[in-house]
Write a structure and sequence with these properties.
The strands form 3 sheets. This protein has a 5-stranded mixed sheet with strand order 1-5-7-9-10, covered by helices on one side. The chain has a 3-stranded parallel sheet with strand order 2-3-4. The protein has helices at 4-14, 37-71, 86-97, 104-110, 113-116, 123-133, 137-147, 157-168, 172-186, 227-235, 254-269, 279-286, 300-311, 315-329, 370-382, 400-414, 427-435; strands spanning 212-214, 216-223, 242-252, 274-277, 358-360, 364-365, 388-391, 397-398, 420-425, 443-446. The longest helix has 35 residues, at 37-71. The protein has 17 helices and 10 strands. α10 (227-235) links the parallel β2 and β3 (242-252). It has 3 domains: 4-69; 117-211 and 361-449, Transcription Regulator spoIIAA (2-Layer Sandwich); 215-329, Transcription Regulator spoIIAA (2-Layer Sandwich), CATH 3.30.750. The protein is globular and about 95 Å long. It is of the alpha/beta class. α6 packs across α17. The model is unreliable at 4-30, 66-118, 201-209 and 349-355 (pLDDT under 50).
Length: 449
């Protein structure tokens, strides 16, 4: 984008400066006479050369920026993420699901946050991460706010850390205020707010929130009536949160809509937390199936769409779709509800998973974590050939001491040549783990904005 200063630069190229408008040369401090006319002309020529060089440099910078905007790959620049609409996101997810197996290694390298999170080594970022880990969120927020003026001008890491802090504390208004500034500064879509504040029972201790192996189901291809048995088994599993991955679904029938809708409703009725991966993929498949006033497809696709929007926390989209459903079937529109456990819909991973089994970490990891470390070791021993995947979707904070203890445990497991991954980390926790050198034993995957 060319601003007013740039217009001034181009106008300079169109006409020569008016000598009368140039500032007069100052008198010498000792009161001596001005330099000779020849010396003044030479000084003026030198000044104009300097201005011309500065102008040329500015034009080069503008041309480079314009070229970048036209031709730059969205994934090539650090931290550059443009949110696609639901339908486009669904197409992208379906395409990713059909990537060649040989692309997995490249995706693994590209998805590594180590290169993307380079600014995490900045002192203000490290200090903020430590303050937050020690429960001093107000000081961490103050430091991050202040560093936006300098570090935040070019780097996105401080912005992302602020977003995660506000979501962890349930501060939607502050999040939206910073998101507007972020979108304006980086000329991108603002991120959407998701309430990630832990339940009251999880505020003070690790044991206040469930952690352990989360029952999981990964659905692929066309979702039809045959999904009923898998989803029924998932609902019949223990009282832990469940993880349903629909990122690789390429089509869905009316029977499939009814089966998935029933499973989600049963899980909600049992007050179980649902982690739904790749929700945008299903949204992109469902929307073309629906038309206002058209009832031939039945109510199941409409109700499933509303369920997905509710799990995603998209209240405005939910209300608009509910009114369309109301008009179509001439019934009262359903109401948006705040889920008791807080459903979550992380984006699908760019790296294919070797196993659906993940160990779900609690919302807060702090204090005495001996039982948690023992549970992780038991999970790792259950299948010595499988990667150790710690799911951090619900993790909002880990204390400094607890992070050090967890690091020691993971180093011991990595000594047996086990692959260890920490998935869906928030950026505050990611900065802390990088500071503690977790990269020596594990791969860190921060969630993306």
């Amino acid at each position: 984008m060319i601003d007013r200063d740039d217009v001034g630069i181009f106008s300079f190229l169109k006409k020569k400066p008016d000598p009368a408008a140039l500032p007069a040369a100052p008198l010498r401090p000792d009161g001596a006479a001005r330099p000779s006319p020849e010396a003044e002309r030479e000084a003026e020529r030198a000044r104009q050369r300097d201005v011309a060089r500065a102008t040329a440099a500015k034009i080069d910078a503008i041309e480079l920026a314009m070229t970048t905007d036209f031709f730059d790959d969205a994934e090539a620049r650090w931290g550059h993420t443009r949110r696609a609409p639901a339908a486009a996101a669904g197409a992208a997810g379906a395409a990713a699901a059909h990537d060649k197996p040989g692309d997995a290694e490249f995706a693994t390298l590209a998805d590594q946050p180590d290169a993307a999170a380079a600014p995490a080594s900045a002192p203000v970022v490290e200090e903020s991460a430590i303050l937050y880990a020690n429960g001093q969120g107000a000081l961490a927020e103050q430091m991050l706010q202040e560093c936006l003026r300098e570090l935040g001008r070019t780097e996105r890491q401080p912005w992302w850390m602020l977003f995660d802090l506000y979501q962890a504390e349930g501060r939607e208004r502050d999040f939206d205020s910073v998101a507007i500034d972020y979108a304006s500064h980086f000329e991108t879509s603002p991120p959407a707010y998701v309430d990630r504040s832990p339940p009251a029972a999880a505020q003070g201790a690790t044991h206040g929130s469930y952690s352990g192996v989360a029952p999981a189901a990964r659905l692929t291809g066309t979702l039809g009536a045959d999904a009923v048995l898998r989803l029924h088994a998932l609902c019949a599993s223990g009282g832990a949160p469940v993880r349903i991955d629909v990122a690789a679904v390429s089509g869905i029938t009316g029977e499939g809509c009814a089966a998935l809708l029933a499973a989600l409703q049963d899980l909600r009725a049992a007050r179980r937390e649902i982690v739904l991966v790749g929700a945008d993929t299903l949204l992109g498949l469902l929307r073309p199936m629906l038309a206002i006033g058209e009832r031939s497809g039945g109510e199941a696709p409409w109700l499933l769409l509303l369920e997905l929007l509710q799990l995603s926390g998209r209240e405005k989209d939910f209300e608009e779709t509910a009114m369309d459903y109301c008009v179509t079937f001439e019934v009262s529109p359903p109401s948006f509800e705040t889920l008791p456990g807080g459903g979550s819909t992380p984006p699908p991973s760019a790296v294919p998973m070797a196993s659906d089994q993940r160990f779900l970490l609690p919302a807060v990891v702090d204090g005495d974590i001996g039982n948690l470390l023992a549970a992780i070791a038991s999970y790792a021993a259950a299948d010595p050939a499988a990667p150790i995947v710690l799911d951090c979707t619900r993790l909002v904070r880990i204390g400094f001491g607890a992070a050090s203890q967890l690091h020691t445990t993971l180093q011991r497991l990595a000594a047996d040549e086990r692959r260890i991954e920490l998935r869906e980390l928030n950026h505050l926790v990611t900065a802390l783990l990088r500071l503690l050198n977790y990269q020596d034993c594990a791969r860190l995957y921060a969630h993306k904005y």
